[in-house]
Amino acid sequence: MVKAVYCVRSTNGVGRCVAGVRRGRVQACVLRCLLAWFVGCTALAVPAEAQKFRELTGRHLKLVTDLAENPDVDVLPAVFDQAVPLWRAYFGVDEHALADWQVSGCLMGDGRLFGEAGLVPPDLPPFLNGYARADRLWVFNQPSDYYRRHLLLHEGVHAFMLAYWHGYGPPWFAEGMAELLATHSWEDGKLALPVFPTAREPFAGWGRIKLVRDDLTSPDCPTFETLLVQPAGDFLQNRAYGWAWAACAFLDGHPRWQQPFREMAKHVRLRRFNQRLQAAVGEAWPELVDEFSVFAWELEYGHDLERWAIVFAPGEALPEGGRSVRVRADRSWQSSGIRLQAGETYRLKATGRYQVVGGPPAWHAEANGVSIRYYRGRPLGMLLAAVRFDAERPSDTQGPARHAGFLSPSAVGLETTLTPNQTGTLYLKVNDSPAELRDNQGALEVQIERVLAEHEAQRRQ
Ligand SMILES: [Zn+2]
Questions:
Q1: How far is the centre of ligand 1, averaged over its atoms, from the C-alpha of 417 (Å)?
Q2: Centroid of ligand 1 to alpha carbon of 155 (angstroms)
Q3: For the chain, which residues make up each domain, given as ranges?
Q4: 10 — alpha (psi -120 to 50), left (phi > 0) or beta?
Q5: What is the pLDDT of residues 338-368, one digit of tens each?
Q6: Strand 363-365 relative to strand 370-375, pairing
Q7: Which member of 12, 54, 62, 109 has the greatest number of CB atoms within 10 A?
Q8: pLDDT, tens digit, for every residue of 23-52?
Q9: What is the spatial distance between Cα 196 and Cα 199, in angstroms, rounded to a whole number?
Q10: What is the pTM of this model?
Q11: CATH number of 3-166
Q12: 309-460 belongs to CATH 2.60.120.430
């Protein structure tokens, strides 16, 4: 149902601020720095015929907008109505829960009009693109249809969580869940969520993967542990949304962390939320922390978390005479089960042939990879090695130093020698995109031997 509820004077203004919601210096600075597709409040110009507010009403959303009639705008209450049962299903909530729940929303082309009409409370704090409070939400219009829906759903998740769970949890979880459960596909009038974007184009304006990638080399690149304590104020910048999405998408899509993560929504009102998550993960916590940093580093559209998940296992000393290990082509980092000693030299020799592209025609490779296609600067299918430092005392290998080997792996190819500078477990994988592991098949064998130092070799002769 569409009906006009207010008439307002014509304006040529573009909604940079909402009346009574002056944007602070921090946000102004952010806005200047953002790419155009992020500048939510540089709304589409309001067409002359859209001089009235319109009310678009669905079962769960009553949306007031100053935007002109447009199928992609007018469908929003129907989109929202499809989202509610999907959110219920995600949270494992009774299908009749919140049956009569309805949110009042404002989709604002020109924020000033909404302020002047009293549709924006004067005490609303500054916000970047959208804001939710109890069962009300406000969203600035966006240039892309995808991102307009996304923002509306994002604020809807906040409202849903508040209505059902009576809380949001810490900022990383509140915003990460809103991002996770707003990232959607909309095809032929059917909504699906959460989805992990497989390409940039259908998600115009979203850009979360780019935000993470752009941050990877910055000195204050987050770790999982710094994200946990991120203050709410950080969410006046878009980079925080990128990382919050990445954290929740990682945990939610990961075969090992999904179950403890999905339990967390019910704890959003409790103090020590982060400690509860850590307790649920238990002794594997350092692996989760490391793995998230590697995930962020290797993040791709269509990232196949099922296959990509690192197979952690602490290594044991290499037996005399060495050992042969098997490396699957359709997985990412896999523990060799061998612990390498700092300062010792090891020889790695690989044999075997495996599929790296499904085809037709299928492509096969040996450990040197195929020279006609590269991924991240190295031949597709090339055998790579990394050492994860796992000293006896956890304090010896804190955070980034512990997983640094994964971020700059060594090329092994058919044969190489490695001399680690710290003791740790050897991990191996073939070089391929985390989005393209599905069509890989087969495995290779890697023989690992210690190279005797000259004096040792002489003594044994
Ligand atoms: Zn939010």
A1: 49
A2: 6
A3: 3-166, 208-303, 309-460
A4: beta
A5: 999 999 999 999 999 999 999 889 999 999 9
A6: unpaired
A7: 109
A8: 332 222 222 223 222 333 333 333 344 457
A9: 9
A10: 0.86
A11: 3.40.30
A12: yes
